[in-house]
Amino acid sequence: MPKNKNYREALTSPIFHTISKAADDLELDTYVIGGFVRDLLLDRGNHKDIDVVAVGSGILLAKKVSKLLLHTPKVQVFKNYGTAMLRDGDLEIEFVGARKESYSYDSRNPVVEDGTLEDDQNRRDFTINTLALSLNGKDFGNILDPFNGLKDLNSQIIRTPLDPDITYSDDPLRMLRAIRFATQLNFTIEPKSLKAITRNKDRIQIISRERITDELNKILLTEKPSVGFALLHKTGLLPLILPQLTALEGIEEVEGQRHKDNFWHTLEVVDNIAPHTDDLWLRWAALLHDIGKAPTKKFHKKIGWTFHGHEFMGAKMVYQLFKNLRLPLNEKMKYVQKLVLMSSRPIVIADEKVTDSAVRRLVFDAGDDIEDLMTLCEADITTKNPNRFKKYHNNFKKVRKKIKEVEEKDHIRNFQPPVSGEEIMETFDLKPSKEIGIIKDAIKEAILEGEIPNEYSAAKEFMIKKGISLGLVPGNQ
């Protein structure tokens, strides 16, 4: 992080000089503020979203900037919020007039009035997001840091500019944002602030599910999501947001027999999968792969703890969970359901002798998601016993090798039986009937069991034999 208090050289994009000229022409004190400045000082890549605050009309400033740009981008105006937005290449710049806010207890939508830059910094969530760089010509690049945000950046601390109880009660979404920033940046939430989140946790219920889910998704996409979920758990927010997950916590012991804590195991699985995929939905599958274990947990004197059918139960639970969180109820949800449902299949195969038949069925059922399923199952190995860990991974290597062999030989993935229903009808002079389905299923089973190869001539010969066994008479072949 630069040591001086002027960051002129860091503001390399030409857009800042255009904004500077527009601000000086309008005689508006103008600043770039928030996430762009924070990430600039942390050297965290290029920020494409830029927040600009003017002491005066942000809308007027946006229109002036648009006129100065050669391509004269369209300005989107949001009069109710006193904001405007324009695009310059891949940059999205939001202009707002400096404002102060006051809140009512039952809403996170504030009453807004014009204010000073200090008012605007006061209303922001964390000190590291209050940092502002001047864009006016006279002091271009100078930093304004009334809350020691630079110090907190250096100390890697998440702290609110005002009393945290007020900050979190006013806008409870900030509690999730604190946890998300702590996870993304590997920062620590200062103790006073963390306690305030716990005190105000119930306020999260006034926040829309869409906004909550947006923060959850961002936590899930971090390098180590368990940090965020552990903080959500510690503050008491998690049971209010994802009770299906916290229901997995705890270890019961009956007659000396215990089971593992499936909550903390789940967080390990999510961390394990994170280095191997940035796919949000595969990470959701990792987070939810064991949610069916809480409602299916039973103790049997002879065999101990069981979770029979937890994959089926978990897959059923995914729909309601997605619905509650306003996650998409489309192919994304079906993908997560499928991986939850199949999450134990490769493990069972790896535990036993890897047969061609079992692998064919696995590949057929998983289809194009077979690689993701294998990645999930490998992440699911959290044993601390080095010998068992090595054994499982070696077995999964065998399964992967067998998948490749079966794929090359039998082309099972997403296959359709080589003989169509229409051809069965023509061969036996049939109208639509249950016999057609019986024959098609028999062909599929024969291919999956390795009785016949996945090719037309063998499938047709099998079809005729099967039809004859059902009392059907083939026509002239």
Automatic annotation (TrEMBL):
<keyword id="KW-0479">Metal-binding</keyword>
<feature type="domain" description="tRNA nucleotidyltransferase/poly(A) polymerase RNA and SrmB- binding">
    <location>
        <begin position="186"/>
        <end position="247"/>
    </location>
</feature>
<dbReference type="InterPro" id="IPR003607">
    <property type="entry name" value="HD/PDEase_dom"/>
</dbReference>
<keyword id="KW-0067">ATP-binding</keyword>
<dbReference type="Pfam" id="PF12627">
    <property type="entry name" value="PolyA_pol_RNAbd"/>
</dbReference>
<feature type="domain" description="HD">
    <location>
        <begin position="265"/>
        <end position="380"/>
    </location>
</feature>
<dbReference type="InterPro" id="IPR002646">
    <property type="entry name" value="PolA_pol_head_dom"/>
</dbReference>
<dbReference type="InterPro" id="IPR006675">
    <property type="entry name" value="HDIG_dom"/>
</dbReference>
<keyword id="KW-0819">tRNA processing</keyword>
<dbReference type="GO" id="GO:0016779">
    <property type="term" value="F:nucleotidyltransferase activity"/>
</dbReference>
<dbReference type="GO" id="GO:0008033">
    <property type="term" value="P:tRNA processing"/>
</dbReference>
<dbReference type="Pfam" id="PF01743">
    <property type="entry name" value="PolyA_pol"/>
</dbReference>
<protein>
    <submittedName>
        <fullName>HD domain-containing protein</fullName>
    </submittedName>
</protein>
<keyword id="KW-0547">Nucleotide-binding</keyword>
<keyword id="KW-0692">RNA repair</keyword>
<feature type="domain" description="Poly A polymerase head">
    <location>
        <begin position="30"/>
        <end position="159"/>
    </location>
</feature>
<dbReference type="GO" id="GO:0042245">
    <property type="term" value="P:RNA repair"/>
</dbReference>
<dbReference type="InterPro" id="IPR006674">
    <property type="entry name" value="HD_domain"/>
</dbReference>
<dbReference type="InterPro" id="IPR050124">
    <property type="entry name" value="tRNA_CCA-adding_enzyme"/>
</dbReference>
<dbReference type="GO" id="GO:0005524">
    <property type="term" value="F:ATP binding"/>
</dbReference>
<dbReference type="InterPro" id="IPR032828">
    <property type="entry name" value="PolyA_RNA-bd"/>
</dbReference>
<dbReference type="GO" id="GO:0046872">
    <property type="term" value="F:metal ion binding"/>
</dbReference>
<keyword id="KW-0460">Magnesium</keyword>
<keyword id="KW-0548">Nucleotidyltransferase</keyword>
<dbReference type="Pfam" id="PF01966">
    <property type="entry name" value="HD"/>
</dbReference>
<dbReference type="GO" id="GO:0003723">
    <property type="term" value="F:RNA binding"/>
</dbReference>
<dbReference type="InterPro" id="IPR043519">
    <property type="entry name" value="NT_sf"/>
</dbReference>
<comment type="similarity">
    <text>Belongs to the tRNA nucleotidyltransferase/poly(A) polymerase family.</text>
</comment>
<keyword id="KW-0694">RNA-binding</keyword>
<keyword id="KW-0808">Transferase</keyword>
